[in-house]
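Workshop exercise sheet. Pairs work together: one partner reads the sequence aloud, the other fills in the structure field after running the prediction. Swap roles for the next sheet.
Pair: D.N. / O.F.
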Amino acid sequence: MALISVKNLTFNYPGKCALSDVSFLIEPQTVTALVGPNGAGKSTLMRCMAGLNLPVQGSIFMDNLDVLNFPRAAHATMGYLPDAFGLYDDLTVEQCLRYYGMVHNVPRHALEDTLQSTAQSLQIVPHLNQAVGTLSRGQRQRLAIAQTLIHKPKVLLLDEPATNLDPEARQHLAQIFKDLQTSGVTLIVSSHILAELQEYCTHMLVLREGRIVAHSDIQSATKNMMDVYLATAGTATTTSETKA
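Structure field:
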């Protein structure tokens, strides 16, 4: 049974259709790569799934919850990290996690254990007493993801999470995503880095001009999906991309 169901989703900006009749299902405990050229509608789709944008038509159900009509209830089962995220630089890492735990109604009696386990899963325990403003880009990214996970959501929506990270930090991030999937979290990750996505994604969803052009199991159809993406993005096919 699908954990996420998106049906006939249409979203318009003034003078532009960003999403047109988008429908798909996401199975639980999978990692779906959401790919497509700039302006394809990836961020708009994620914002709709997070209950932040209201579409012209369509429905979104997540863990049997109607996201569009009951966004507050749906937020209890999801975590969303936008491309441009903000952090409280003057607080410590621990203070940030504690604050987000309280915002997401983590019970007080469980908050300390939840904070520690979340920090452990994102490998930021050594930085708990460090001011956020002194963290590296990779550490800030881990903290941002930890904040979205503090309430133990079933679904994690990540918009370009590897942006501006160095190769080592990207590798660590990929391992974190694998660990989250193993623990039972379902992830949807937007990115332009195709070779990196293949390291941890189980499925690929390709958008072009607000429409789905492909959705498949990445393990069984990797080459075909890469060809579709490359043609969609209008980029030159290189040997490394084709084999990635």
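Discussion prompt: The chain has two domains: 4-77+154-243, 86-152. What would you look at next?
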